[in-house]
Amino acid sequence: MGMDKLRGSIVALVTPFDERGAIDFDALGRLVDYQLEGGTDGILVLGTTGESSTMTDIEDYEVARFVKERVAGRVPVIGGAGSNSTQESLDKSLGLQQLGLDGLLLITPYYNKSNEEGIYRHFKTVLDAVDIPCILYNIPGRTGCKISEENVARLCGHPNAWGIKEASGDIAYATAVARYVSDDFRMFSGNDDMVVPILSLGGSGVISVWADVAPAAVHEMCEAWFAGDVARAREIQLGNLELVHSLFAEVNPIPVKAALASMGLIHEGYRAPLWEPTDETRSRLAAALKGAGLID
What we know:
Layout: E1 8-12, H1 25-37, E2 42-45, H2 57-71, E3 77-80, H3 86-98, E4 103-107, H4 116-129, E5 134-138, H5 140-143, H6 149-155, E6 161-166, H7 171-177, E7 186-189, H8 195-200, E8 205-208, H9 210-213, H10 215-226, H11 230-239, H12 241-247, H13 254-262, H14 279-291
Parallel strand pairs: 1-2, 1-8, 2-3, 3-4, 4-5, 5-6, 6-7, 7-8
């Protein structure tokens, strides 16, 4: 399935690791099946939630290939191809495109950050080289820099700039960027507690951590909005705020992996420097998951 009509809930999928720290492909298959059964509209692999920063290129391609084959065309599969090195991002983008992924997620260059022209060229280099849709990823809390409104204006008209994942948490910025939303350039919320507000600005959905544990609820929330049932969409958003907040009680993806483990879907394994959550976080997660009917 292509990206043309993609909207709604795109899950930012975790990468499950086994007791030895290797990728657990059996668990990865369970996660993909759980998402498809829950109505997820698209799957993103190798993002922040997927711990791609601690994975090798070989592991990245193995995960991308596995998920693409497991999904078997039922929903689009997008691959995180971001790096603070433009050349590395380009190489990874071309590699994931060759594997047949439907789209790419491109993050702003972190640590070295660059100036305005450098950030523009960082994205344009990849956009010029690939033949599949790309989502720009604005998350200054992680990267230390943002995609300025001016650069969004410069990039949004590129034929391979399919949209932006807006994860700044700044509604004023999102409102400014919403002026560039069109049939050819979409905006997705990168914050699970701001999905309905982003939809109200013309957004097309969410790239979601929440959907890892509750794909059906996130999908229903988006579909309710698109069907004109604003009250139902708002009810799901507000009714799940404690679950969403518990999933971010510590740095992502620590809580969501603990939650998935408590649901029996994965072994609770992380790549260093990530570590298991505190007892307080576990208690909060358990209460929120029970409240959402996800565990007994």
